[in-house]
Amino acid sequence: MSSVAVLTPESFAEHRSGLRDQEITGGVPEDEAYIPTYLEAFPPLPENRGNLGDKSGELGRAWSTKIRPIRASVITQVFNVPLEERRYKDNSQFGDGGEEAKVCLDIMQRTGAHIELSLAKDQGLSIMVTGKLDSVMKARKEIVARLQTQASATVAIPKEHHRFVIGKNGEKLQELELKTATKIAIPRPDDPNLNIRITGTKEGIEKARHEILLISAEQDKRAVERLSLEKAYHPFIAGAHNRLVQELNRETGARISIPPPGLHKDEIVITGEKEAVALAASRIQAIYNDKKRKTTTISVEVKKSQHKYIVGPKGNSLHEIMESTGVSVEMPPLDSASETIILRGEPDKLGPALTQVYAKVHIEFTDGEEQISLEGPTEEVEQAQVQIQGIIRDLLVRMDYTEVNIDQRFHRHLIGKNGANINRIKEQYKVSVWIPQEPDRSGLVRIEGDPKGVQLARKELMEVAHRMENECTKELSVEQRFHRSIIGQKGEKIKEVRDKFPEVVINFPDPAQKSDMVQLRGPKNEVEKCSTFLAKLIQDLVENTFSLSITIFKQFHKNIIGKGGANIKKIREETCTKIDLPAENSNSETIVITGRKNNCEAARDRILAVQRELANNREAEVTIPAKLHNSVIGSKGCLVRAIMEDCAGVHIHFPSEGSGSDKVTIRGPAGEVERAKRQLLLLAEEKEVNNFTAELHAKPEYHKFLIGRGGVNIRRVRDCTGARIIFPSPDETEKELITIVGKEEAVRLAQKELETLLKNLNDVVEDCMVVETRHHRHFVCRRGQVLRELAEEYGGVAVSFPRTGAHSDRITLKGAKDCVEAAKRRIQEIIEDLEAQVSVEVEVPQQYHRAVMGPKGCRIQQITRDHDVQVKFPDRDESVTEAPPPQENGNASLEGETVPRRCDIITISGRTEKCELAKTALLALVPVTEDVQVSYDLHRYIIGQKGSGIRKMMEEYEVNIWVPPPDQQSDVIKVTGQMASVERAKLGLLERVRELQAEQEDRVGTRPVYWNKHTGTSSRSGVCALYSVRIILRYLIPFPVHRSPDVIVISGYERNTEVARSAIEQLVSALQEMVNQDVHIDPRTHARIIGARGKAVRKAMEEFKVDIRFPQPGSEDPGRVTVTGLPDCVDNAIEHLLNLEEEYMLSVTETETMAAYMKPPSRYRGSDGGGPDDNGGLAAKGFVVRDAPWNDKAPDMSSAEDFPTFGAGAAPKQTSAWGPKKF
């Protein structure tokens, strides 16, 4: 068997196209017209000079032995998923990579196979899987199951055959599932069902069904016939659309199983009754013999990208060709690179079939353009064009689209987790929704589909966006002393909290505000979770920061500390507390213990025990009811402090608040302790008379009504009775308990008053009032916020407004009688406010709106809160390019009246008097600009280094300071900001000017230092040296150094200028000794000498203390390198460069030699190594050789030597140009 490889000039040129044309230095003649001989271009293999006669048998056996092929351990499989079978069709619109990439990543981690995805123009998915065989099979099965839509089918086989499908330990079933990439469910043994369910792709289902039927047929007691017929003839046996094999099944009664096209097996299995099997086998054999005798084949080359159009959807086009012409079209596998299509059929039918193959119209949708390309026969293209235009007209009638602008930060909420929300909307309304990617920075969402569905989907998306805008905000009260602990060093701890709740925004107040309110904003559920988490965190901080103070006599502090701090260290370690003692020079006797409560108490007991051992002190306990402790202690401890001062050396300790203990401890000298005890009991008895307590229970929703608006109700009860009424705080468990404290008769009277109010509240009544319909919206908008406030303030009264469209002005109030009456009065007040509202327009130029609003709108929010008004800013007009003239010194221009622009009008709504106050406050926020006269010479000092000085002033005074550019040389500096800030900035700027003028008075000048021209401003080394002096002497020379071509002028204090002058003169003398020397270095080595990013040449310059300059690209002398420095250093550097050149040239020469050897000689046009088309001549002739066998004279066909007669004597041996003859 022999084969012939055709080497064309085009293919050879393509093969050599990657090689760079270079000069060939040896082994090949330099003549441009030189053509190599056949033996030079194709040298023969070396001959075996051994004794061939002795080993001929061995060689024959060696070559005749079939070598077992070695299979690669790594294989690659490629398969396609059509658009209609993709599970995630629109997933590419959301996120990076989408679900398909995530699924593939998960499969790669689980199986160890490598997966690559690509998307075709027809939106089909191409998947390449690489890895070991087992890994590839497992990965393919999972990909098909998770990325391709699954179909299902059932196949019925006898129950007793099921176990053969499963195999030993389920191995057969697992192998079958991997092989077909399907999921096969077999009924349990106790289930009488015979059906086996197969789930997977259509192709996989067919393969699995075929294999299961084969297994069942093998186990079937009936006859089984296996016909091994060539795969190429199976389509003729099956017929178009499998009609012929179905007809055979019906006529013979046998079951015929033909392998599907994707399964490369020649075996056809026939099962059934013996006569039926024999009849079917004979019919199939007859078809096969007939087609094999009559059919022939032709091969055509068609681009691989066009194969899918020939196959058609689900292979319909192939079946149509088979049905109309009786010709089978054999397509190469999808994972094959072959483009050859084989047509098999009768000779007279092959022509029409080939015509049909080429006659398929190809339709392609171009990306990014509104065009559809059609390719094919003219008539069919015109028919397809008419049909497509009809479809387009139909779509324009049936379909609609709309675009809505939704803030991009809400897009992820529109999409939902794993696209759940957007997929539900698509399915529910039968629409397509396109949401832009995050990098696009666009908020435009496009909806396409049925007109009604588009409107419904748009409505729902807008509702979701609106709901997101009204997200939940909650304020958490956290003592400011804990803020730093929660935030952590450099924000590490709060970052962990934010990472745990990424959807919640946590804002801490500015430390200067002295506020305890921490704001949480985000989705309600997440805000609640974050609030609970922070509350637990704060509780832990509170527990760990419990503080306890004890008073210990000053003389005992050193004993508590111990030698070298041993005692106090031991107490701290054993009790896990922080103990702070006052300084030695302090008169304080208080020791502070911090930590958990029980640990602090243990440390306190141990310290007190030390004091008791050292002093003859007495300790006494007095029982005083806990409810009297605050009144006995007095305001800021004044009463108990007076007792301790009166009884010298006595310390009185009350239990911590909330402990419930009645024991008060007194420590000190015995006599003073008894005296303090008597005074304390006397004070407690006095307080107890005026501290009678009564308790009352009321529903929490009634508390606000009992208190009244602004506390008016509870204040009236207190004034009438003299009793103190205490309501429960929000964090107390007993929400219904109200405590009344005071003298007994006052408490009884207050209790009676409150009980009367509660009795009225418990009597529920229903009442109506009239509210004009135009005011209804104010009460029900913002999710009924006004109604909620009314219910909270007036004992839970329920206010019901008529439904929208009812055209009724009557509202219903239901609740306690007093609450209903109070609510009615409040509603009437609100209506009066609404009717009294006016709108005031304030003209503020659009350019100042952002400054008026302030950061995050804080300034305008403050105005709305202070004056109870609403402020509305106009929409920004982008077409306005020219700003109005600025207000100088806060005074508007009076030259004629102009019509105000709508984009400049700010509207304030509210009561007249409040609107006027708000207007005044708003105008006060409008920035003004004032000019400050500052000498031009001082501008650079005011600006400071890199603008630090001017930036500091702008931040300090909250203004914008504009300094004119140097080319104007103007003395006017403009200050812009609020009036008060501008005034403060002017004073600060003038103060800075006075400081600079005072410094200038102390400065003097010195004689100039002359700068030699050849080392002046044009010398890089000189300039660098000059700036080095300036950096070194910066603390001596605060003003910059001025340079001119020949003179350097130094300004500053006299002693500093002398030092700088001396240093610069030394540098000048050193620079004058430098020399410049040129050296020629081969340009091919420059890149390696310079190194990556100049690293190598910088190292050389630092080592030899020189400056090395390489020529620019395109210079006249590309090899000239300039070295600058001291003579000895320059010589050493040049020697180093020449050594590097010699070393690098060895590898350069070797590389060029190898490249020249790899280049074919025929491509050379001259000794300069020019390419084949350097001179714009004709194209290359291709690869030409001399003395080739085909150049010899053709063999003589009549010659008995070249063509001997069989049976005749052998011709004498003669060597031919074609090599030895083989027979």
Automatic annotation (TrEMBL):
Its annotated compartments are: Cytoplasm
Q: Where is the K Homology domain?
A: 149-217, 221-289, 294-393, 398-466, 470-539, 544-612, 616-685, 690-759, 763-832, 836-927, 928-994, 1073-1142
Record keywords: Coiled coil, Cytoplasm, Repeat, RNA-binding
List where this protein forms a coiled coil: 740-767
Citing just one GO molecular function, the answer is: mRNA binding
- InterPro entries to which the protein is assigned, alphabetical: KH_dom, KH_dom_type_1, KH_dom_type_1_sf, KH_Vigilin_N
Q: Where is this region: Disordered?
A: 875-895, 1159-1223
Q: What domain of life?
A: Eukaryota
Its main subcellular localisation, reduced to a broad class, is: cytoplasm
Transmembrane residue ranges: none
SUPFAM superfamilies (alphabetical): Eukaryotic type KH-domain (KH-domain type I)
- Quote the cellular component terms of the Gene Ontology held in the record: cytoplasm
Q: Do you know which Gene3D superfamilies this protein is assigned to?
A: K Homology domain, type 1
The secretion signal range is none
Which SMART domains does the UniProt entry name for this protein? KH
| Family matches, as PANTHER family | HIGH DENSITY LIPOPROTEIN-BINDING PROTEIN B, SCP160
Record's protein name: Vigilin
Q: Which organism is it from?
A: Esox lucius
